[in-house]
Each structure stands twice: as C-alpha cells, then as structure tokens.
Write a structure and sequence with these properties.
By secondary structure, the protein is of the alpha+beta class. 25% of the residues lie in helices and 21% in strands. The mean pLDDT is 69. InterPro entries: ACCD_DCysDesulf, TrpB-like_PALP_sf.
C-alpha cells in the first residue's frame, strides 16, 4: 500500500482530510459493476456480435476458473445509484459543499437552474432534508 501524499502546509494527508470531513450522504460507497465482453450465445453467431456480463461483485482475481477469465472487462462506477434524486456528480459535489456551508452558518443557498434543472432539484432535496431554505433563480 502506498503512503498517503502529504498536503502542503502542515503535513496532513488526503486520508486524514477525508476522514475528518463531514459528509451528508448516508454512505459514500458507490456500487462498482464489472462488465465483461463475452461471445454471443445465439446461433449462428457472427464474429461482431457480443454478449455482456454485468457483475456487481468483484471478479475472481486469484486464478479462479470462470467463464469470464481472460475476457476483456472494464469497471463502471455507478454514482447514479447514490441517492434517488441527487445522484452522480451532483451528489458528490453537494455532499462535500453543503456541510461546509452549514458549518460556516449559511441558512440559504441560491442556485442557478430552471424549474426542470437536475442541479436545482438535487440541491433542493438535500437542503430541504436539512431544514434550510432554497431560492432558485
């Protein structure tokens, strides 16, 4: 395991900074899906047809024999599953920003976005949950 890099001015590490930060999401854990490219099982199978395997558990990396061993694979981080209304990069951004504003005494937030804006809806959902007023422009 590599040592955590020290932050400028004080020798604090990224791990220390993150563990000392207040977060709003109940769990910052993000589901990771492993997608494997498999040959198509439908006969006759032209060489350009593929099937995909979607694993929500870690694939065997210890030499286990499975159908997907040796196949091309990639992992997808599912931030869209973090929160039902505030998901993806909006959830990550608001998760760190809103507790910081509350600690500094903010009672209101002004955000830009129309009535159908995903950002405005996500901000509103999180602020309303914590009894803070929302003003949208």
């Amino acid at each position: 395991m590599r040592p955590s890099p020290a932050l400028a001015g004080g020798g604090r590490t990224v791990a220390n900074l993150l563990s000392a930060t207040e977060w709003m999401l109940p769990s910052p854990a993000t589901q990771v899906h492993t997608i494997s490219v498999l040959p198509s099982h439908s006969p006759p199978s032209p060489p350009h047809h593929f099937a995909f395997s979607n694993l929500t558990t870690a694939p065997k990396r210890n030499g286990g024999k499975g159908e997907e061993e040796g196949r091309p694979r990639f992992e997808v981080v599912r931030d869209d599953l973090l929160h039902p209304l505030a998901n993806g990069n909006k959830a990550r951004k608001l998760d760190a920003l809103l507790p910081l504003l509350r600690r500094r005494g903010a009672t209101d937030v002004v955000t830009c976005g129309g009535c159908q804006s995903a950002h405005a809806a996500a901000t509103g959902e999180i602020w309303i949950t914590h009894f803070v007023f929302l003003h949208s422009t």
